[in-house]
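EI: anyone free to look at a 280-residue chain?
SC: sure, send it
EI:
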Amino acid sequence: MSAIELITKLREMTGAGIKDCNNALKEANNDIEAAVKILREKGIASAVKRADRSAKQGVVVAKLSDDKKQGVLVELNCETDFVARTDKFKALAESLADFVAKSSSAENISEQKFDDTRTVQDVIKEAIGTIGENIVLKRTAKFSTTGEVASYIHMNNSLGVLVNFEAPADVIASENFKNLEKEIAMQIAAVNPSYITRDQVPQEEIDKEKEIYVKQLQEEGKPANIIDKIVLGKLNKFYSQICLMEQPYMREEKENIKNVIAKVNKDIVVKQFARFKIGE
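SC: here you go
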């Protein structure tokens, strides 16, 4: 039997991938029964079946470089909360976050080489076999900055936030800034903005909101000459819900986030953020 025929047969017997089958056959000196045993011992033979199962639990992990010029956020999912709380699963999430931090690109993480012999997806497959649940690297974020990256992880690693700030070096070194970046990260975690400023909101999203407001007001019988003014007020409220800078501060609703930041220093800029919550 040729090498290709052996691989094909082993795939049919186990459901494992081509690379896994090839490696198992090499290890077993082309003894197909021994290769099956190797795949089963590694859990790879059953990993494919498990990969169809829903993964809606998990953890969110953040990693910052020592100088806080770089940060990553990783969401790793599994099937049950029990597994999400295990040291083995948490260690896998930490190792993947470390990998993302060192990676030269945040694109196609699963296909990147984790080490000399395995891709990230290979590592996850091995973990599926060992842990016994479907595991999915759902999403990652990676920020680099001339300012500082901050992070916040909510209880049980169920929610995480990464924020990229730009500010003068003397401001970044201040205690007020350290307190502010924590507050902003917690604000994002608690209130879940979609954008930083209103100019980031896509025009089609604005148009859709306007259309809804106009129809509502027309059905209420509002005079045509005041509808535009009312719509403007409704849009301002809409922006205050979805734009970080316009959101009421969670600790003092009379203040918006833009004013809270300006009180520390007007040169502080929130450049980007990521917010990952398990189940969303």
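EI: DSSP finds twelve helices and eight strands in the chain.
SC: 👍
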